[in-house]
Amino acid sequence: MSAVDEHHQVVDRLAGKIIGIIGGTGPQGRGLARRFADSGLQVVIGSRSADRAEAAAAELGSSVRGATNEDCAETADIVLVTVPWEGHRSQVEALAKELAGKVVVDCVNPLAFDKMGPFAPSVPEGSAAEQAQMLLADATVVAAFHHLSAVVLLDDEVASLDADVMVVGDDREATNLVQDLAGRIAGCRGVYAGRLRNAGQVEALTANLIAINKRYKAHASLRVTDI
Question: Where is the Pyrroline-5-carboxylate reductase catalytic N-terminal domain (predicted)?
């Protein structure tokens, strides 16, 4: 058994849990929803428009349904946030009541672009995940799923992603749960990568991956070696 697998238990911690994806009609949200549904999990994708969410869900299979962001957050046991950075604060803050007591997985990458290309802007709280935790005092925030290509997630011809998911958080039970969730995507491992204060480096690395993809015309992801 590898070091990455040591946290796994015989009992399936995800059994019976509903996965919610706030902003789930975007490419990242739809891609994650599809992969989770393919693994047998029940998924709810949220949107400001229930009709839009239901239309997106209909394309992803019977294990996925659409709802408003509020209904998604209230219904799900584990909630992923995949909204654009520009709307991150307002959307998370608006759902504080529905997200209380839940594990919230922040997948958002603060990004900006200028004539030199992508870069990570300064975030007063340190990272999107730390901003979410500040706004969600009654939830447990974990940062993860920043480096998976939405194009690859949505590609029917890609059966296995061959990627690691860096999982960052302060609550070990919550990070273990999210590592398990990452492992439900074929070809992926969830790798514990430190406490929530380290989320900024993980989020910022996405700017480097975008630069790599542009230069090499690729959809690069990450692998962590020697574990």
Answer: 19-110
